[in-house]
From TrEMBL:
Forms a complex with KhpB. Keywords: Cell shape, Cell wall biogenesis/degradation, Chaperone, Cytoplasm, RNA-binding. This is RNA-binding protein KhpA. The gene is khpA. InterPro entries: KH_dom-like_a/b, KH_sf_prok-type, KhpA. SUPFAM superfamilies: Prokaryotic type KH domain (KH-domain type II). It is found in: Cytoplasm. One of its GO terms (molecular function) is RNA binding.
Length: 74
């Protein structure tokens, strides 16, 4: 999943080397925390959150071991 997120986010940002993805597992879910350069945050979120919503929808469709997947953008 980290590779998928990396592949989606890299073309959107000006500083691809500053993309950081961390993972936190819980009993029923997995949360990925996506951190980008401050100048790129708006590009990843998109107008009215459209890009962020699309990324979250894609991530949610790919459950891991029956766990729900969430993406938080920092």
């Amino acid at each position: 999943m980290e590779k998928l997120l990396q592949t989606i986010i890299e073309p959107l940002v000006d500083f691809p080397e500053e993309i950081e993805i961390s993972k936190e597992e819980h009993a029923n879910s997995v949360t990925y925390y996506l951190s980008v350069h401050p100048d790129d945050t708006g590009k990843v979120i998109g107008r009215q959150g459209r890009i962020a919503k699309a990324v979250r929808t894609l991530a949610a469709s790919r459950s891991e071991n029956g766990k729900r997947v969430f993406v938080e953008i920092d």
